[in-house]
Description:
Layout: E1 2-7, H1 20-33, E2 38-46, E3 53-57, E4 60-66, H2 74-90, E5 94-97, H3 100-108, E6 113-117, H4 121-124, H5 131-150, E7 153-156, H6 159-165, E8 172-175
Parallel strand pairs: 1-2, 1-5, 2-4, 5-6, 6-7, 7-8
Antiparallel strand pairs: 3-4
Amino acid sequence: MIRLVLAQQYPFETDTFPGGVHTAGYYLARGMQARDEIDVRVLTVSGQAPQDMDRVDNDLRVHFLSEPNVRILPNMSRNIRRLTTQLQEMKPDIVNANLVVYAVAALRAGLPTVFTVHGVIHKEAQVWTRPIDRLRYMMYLRYDREVMARVKHLIATSPYVVKEYQGRTEAKFHVIDNCIDERFFGV
């Protein structure tokens, strides 16, 4: 049996999804959970978790690392350190990380890592003009470069991601389109 950790955004309340990455994380976890040959666990950072906690969500084991509700720059570095330690304790066979912070932690933990790219950070950084946002994206860009230099496999959620990251990494690309539940197409 393969021990898989999905290091990703995951909704604290599973009846409400705060955004697309949380939604994708939820459905990916459910899909992996349905596979008999995979022991799947989720590791996530959440400002909604009152403290670090384990929860079983419909037979899916989820470990929440709490973070302050106020977003401050040191949260990124703090979260990476805490995620790295937790991943080392979990000892998975493989980690699927869905944001750069999770990918940095998995790689620093010395674990086989697949990074699912949901956003093109070097493009996102261009639209932010406030000094605090520019500083935050400088950190994201640094972590993004670290991941792209070290990761061996990338899941691209669209051909656009491949186009934007080709030449920035030696990783092998696997294109898997974003999964969208049919109910989102209802009028």
